[in-house]
TrEMBL record, chain A:
InterPro entries: 4Fe4S_Fe-S-bd (IPR017896), 4Fe4S_Fe_S_CS (IPR017900), CobQ/CobB/MinD/ParA_Nub-bd_dom (IPR002586), P-loop_NTPase (IPR027417). Residues 73-102, 103-131 form the 4Fe-4S ferredoxin-type domain. This is Mind superfamily p-loop atpase containing an inserted ferredoxin domain. It comes from hydrocarbon metagenome. Pfam families: CbiA, Fer4.
Amino acid sequence: MYERAALENNGDKTLKLAVASGKGGSGKSTVAANLAYAISLSGNVTLVDCDVEEPNLHLYFPSTTEEQVVTTPVPVVDDERCTQCGRCGEFCRYGALAVTGNGVLTFLEMCHSCGGCMLICPEGAIHEVERPIGRVTTAHPLPRLTLITGILNEGEVLSPRVIRAAKEAVGADPVIIYDSSPGTACPVIETLEGCDACILVTESTPFGLHDLRLAVEVAGTLGVPAGVIINRSDGKDAETRAFCDEHGLPVLMTIPFDRGIASLQGRGELFSRAMPEWQEAFGDLYRKCRALVGRPV
Amino acid sequence: MKIGITARGPTIDSPCEERFGRAPYFIIYDTDSGDTAAIQNELADAPGGVGPRVAQLMHTNGVEAVISGRVGGNAERALAAAGIAMYAYDGGGTVGDAIAAFRRGELMRIV
């Protein structure tokens, strides 16, 4: 079902970087897209959009895509064999099955595909079928850049399953960049798991700092080394920088609150493509990330 | 007939709880004998999927009607499948007040 080993056996040479943040709208996708673009100028890179509830990296990289369906196993109850003993409904902590005297009701969108109901059924009345919950698309928008996008179907909740499928779709490129969803919950943890390092994007506001603290805790708990990018900086970053110093977090880059950058961004353009100094800065960011994990270029 | 009333405490004098699946207690009241029993809801703080599970709990306890404030879609589907009626009470009183209103036929059936 979940082939974690396959992900971990990518070989030591692959550099896996996650871009995350506590706060939404802080600039994760901007950083991920520009970093991937800068790396692609000198080597192969895969960018993975793990923000499966609202993926948007494709806006920077319009291209044709190949699509595969993501499914998850869910229970089907054989009414002929079911004695309505109720064990499956009592077992399921997600409320995906309820036994109410008129057969077993299933609430398949609640199912987390643990398979426990099938194991606990004394009558062997439950088997699993695959239910589609999302898609993974693959595109090659630039000669050395592959974009993989996870998309969770509307109304579904099992985003970690789609994130995992997107991660499994990654090929053999030497650098993989995973763009996370905001927050600190399951989708972020699924994205960060197995990464060599994590770039946390924040902004110099109380909201940015508050959520950065939470994101630092998540990265720390998962044992993923982290560095910080301060985005839309108005120059008043003392508090954020003090926090980073205190927690041993390198500030890898500061992006100013700049009309030129904002206007390129607003048109869905990569500012590192339009502004050569930023192309260089993102190349430098890549070298700092390699240094962060002890594997300098 | 047994009715289950969602409550904030374990007695008939406890205030009614408006939420169904996340009620801290269920008071099971037998309309024939007048007996009451309290069930503490272990799912009150569960992360999700409580509606169908509490509906199954009501069914397992032989409850034929539920009095609560509101009910979500999944719980409604499970209650309907179990043939359990649900009546809305929003009077802000105790479990005893809700039972009295039910007995007077004042509560609207919503499932």
